[in-house]
Design goal:
Length: 298
């Protein structure tokens, strides 16, 4: 259920800042106890503009809270074996607490092979099969940052998912599947439907949702006719659409047609300024968790 007095817009900027403030305070306590600051190492292959912007954002957030970082920038034609060598070296480096390889990777590199190569204890993205398995079992080491951020947004916005009919549009290992698992946990107690590109009569499912999460990767895919009155709508999508009226020549939009859906929604996240910022904030929490686990020898 939703808090009727709450503002309609779920402000990712405000919520992410609150998370960063908490992480910064926890890291201050951590270093006051004599520990070194957590260290996050990122690997970026190629010159994908969106990935570069996202990594810069992660670096900025990390600096704000007291996490040390470095980013390994590799050419787009870097071989898979060279990338794996770097991952193995970072796995073996005792100064590295958290390690992430920014996705997507160039077509000649098999993403799953690279994900599988990351030390599970350093896998702050939570994508390694061991960490996904631990999540499914209910004993997570790290929760993938986007689903983690969505659950945190709902909690901090006083959205009670108990008994909600939740529909997740998208079945990726990064968002859809882990989010469905989190919503099914006894701490959330939602009833979950996962839809995808082969779902018949998608709108019939989305109109049934008290909680609708759009992670389809298609701009403005969910319109007002697909949403029931009073639904909570979480937009995971970040899509570039051409817009000659802007200085950059494009603008960012979500998977939800925001202007069409907002009048019907009880709560809704914007793009930009929504889930993406919370994703970055939860990565910081995972990195602090990695430092604590390494200090404990876990």
């Amino acid at each position: 259920m939703t808090d009727a007095t709450a503002p309609k817009l779920i402000d990712g900027r405000e919520l992410a800042q609150a998370v960063r403030d908490e992480v910064r305070a926890a890291i201050n306590d951590w270093t006051d106890e004599g520990h070194r600051p957590p260290f996050l190492s990122a690997v970026l292959v190629g010159d994908n503009a969106a990935s570069e912007a996202y990594v810069r954002g992660k670096e900025k957030d990390a600096a704000e809270v007291g996490i040390d970082t470095n980013t390994h920038h590799l050419d787009a034609d870097t071989s898979q074996s060279a990338l794996l060598d770097l991952v193995h070296n970072l796995n073996a480096d005792p100064s590295v607490d958290g390690l992430l390889v920014q996705l997507p990777l160039p077509d000649h590199i098999d993403e799953q092979t690279v994900i599988d190569a990351v030390d599970p204890s350093k896998d702050v993205d939570g994508f390694h099969p061991e960490n996904l398995g631990r999540l499914l079992r209910g004993t997570p080491r790290y929760i993938p940052a986007t689903p983690y951020g969505i659950m945190e947004m709902l909690s901090r916005s006083n959205v009670d998912t108990e008994g909600m009919d939740a529909v997740v549009v998208g079945r990726s290992n990064i968002v859809g599947k882990p989010l469905a698992n989190l919503l099914l946990r006894r701490t959330a107690n939602a009833t979950v439907t996962v839809c995808h590109s082969r779902t018949r009569d998608l709108a019939a499912h989305t109109r049934r949702a008290d909680l609708l999460v759009a992670a389809a990767g298609q701009a403005a895919f969910i319109d007002g006719d697909m949403v029931t009155e009073g639904a909570v709508v979480i937009d995971v999508g970040i899509n570039r659409v051409e817009d000659a009226s802007t200085e950059r020549g494009y603008r960012l939009v979500g998977d939800v047609d925001f202007d069409d859906v907002r009048p019907k929604a009880a709560r809704i996240t914007p793009v930009p300024g929504g889930v993406g910022l919370m994703t970055r904030a939860m990565l910081l929490k995972n990195t602090l968790q990695a430092a604590r686990l390494r200090a404990e020898g876990s």
